[in-house]
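Below is how a single chain appears once it has passed through the pipeline. First comes the sequence as given, then the structure the pipeline wrote out for it. We keep one example in the README because the format questions we get most often are answered faster by looking than by reading.
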Amino acid sequence: MVDNEVKSILFAGVGGQGILRASDIICMAIMEAGLDVKKSEVHGMAQRGGCVISHVRYGKKVYSPLAESGSIQTLVSFEKMESLRYLKSLRKDAAIIVNTEEIYPPAVNMGDAPYPDDVIAFLKDHYGKVIHFNAAELAQKAGNIKTANVVLLGAISNLMNIDQSIWQSVIKKSFPEKLVKTNLAAFQMGIAA
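Resulting structure:
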């Protein structure tokens, strides 16, 4: 990391996917790595399946939790269609991690709008680094579908200069003892994905 460079990550998805929990965990890992971190979140209609986003910015010294439009280096999309909603926020060379799970919004469920086709192909045509997999399926293999957010943390950990021992320590502190093993397994599945 360049001495004064501030990195920006945007988590985006639908209410109930564990976005805010994931952003809390990543912030703890960043702090334990000795860096400054700021976070901002929006979760207006989350309880009704609405959009949820969380900005995480980190570096040697961070002054604002929000990045300027067009300056975010990494998007972690917890739902495939949600990745399209925030493209204007990204740099041209941004990395995008996409959970390919589809959660239909009310307009699609009611037949008022179609779910977009070929989201991944569109992203690959416009961005150089697009990582995509079904985090819910991997979470299920780890032992609990609710760990999909931790699978996505495993994937983004590959793009960050934070030692794996820090991640493991933070995950152990973030969950009750009975859930630690499953979440560590989910994290490893995200790294492999």
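The two ends are 24 Å apart (CA to CA).

See the next section for the split statistics.
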